[in-house]
Design a protein that fits this description.
There is one protein chain. Helices cover about 50% and strands about 0% of the residues. By secondary structure, the protein is mostly helical. It contains 17 helices and two strands.
Length: about 350
Amino acid sequence: MARLNATVLSLCVVLAFLAGQSAAGRYYSDKVQDKVRKEVEKAMAYNPSVGAALVRLVFHDCWINGCDGSVLLDKTPTDGTNVEKKAVNNIGLAGFEVIDTIKQKVGAAASCADILVFAGRDAADILSGGKIFYNLAGGRKDGVVSSASAADATLPHSTFDFAQLQNNFAAAGHGFTVEELVVLSGAHSIGVAHLSSYQDRLADATATPIDSDYQAALNKTTPLDLLKKGQDPTVPNNPRDASAAFQKAAAYDPVALGVSPARGVLDNSYYHNNLENKVLFKSDWVLRTDGFAAGKLQEYRDNATEWNSDFADAMVKLSGLPAQGKNLEIRRNCRFTNQQYYY
């Protein structure tokens, strides 16, 4: 009886999570996408933080040589183990086990690249409470190259200024506008960041404008001296998701700011935070230094529905960046090329 009660309780927790986070019961006629959806729901019910990780994986895969699943590789014939996962700019990537589980379910019916973008789409849908949804087709192939140095050279850095961000997004193989840069930056309403990625914002000598209360709360929670001790702790990207004690120290009141206090939701709260100088990264704040970008920050702060729609469109474009490599395949195992599958 105790075991039965525990099972019922667990089921209730899962259903409560899904009811609170998404339009529960979304189904796809495509069997692969339906299996992906079910596994993403299971994974997020067990560990809600994996949702943000799955959304992040889409950008970190597709930005390097297109959507080819290269960020999932542990080893390649040409790069050895010095793969994209080990790039400095890929610190904290997660969600790989979810992709592995899905691959076991669908087998050769889908590439790892397809699974990754489908999972990111479903995570965004769930995290937004069903307000961000977009259709995706399959047909992507998996790459056989994955380089940490290429990832660090291609991914935008958290310390970029506006011109560097603009050039990075507009570069060949990307082709994203300033508006899309601002749109995709809104994904920083979820997830976490490592101290090493925002350390420049805590030292007065290097800090771009940041709210003093927010900066003080960060310095108290994650003092810079921790890096010298080999520690690199994380904090939520969004102060909305921080503890009550942190919010009090940071003088952050989501309700007063016009932000829903619901934690972990993918929404337009990033724009409210940015316009109050309560964002972690320099690359977030510098959007305020360009007239057009700053105008879009205000626009998305004031119109959540518009941002939801524009974010969905930008994710469709991101998920459609074509793989640029040669010898593309459908991997048997998402962590290894087929050449290495048996080794």
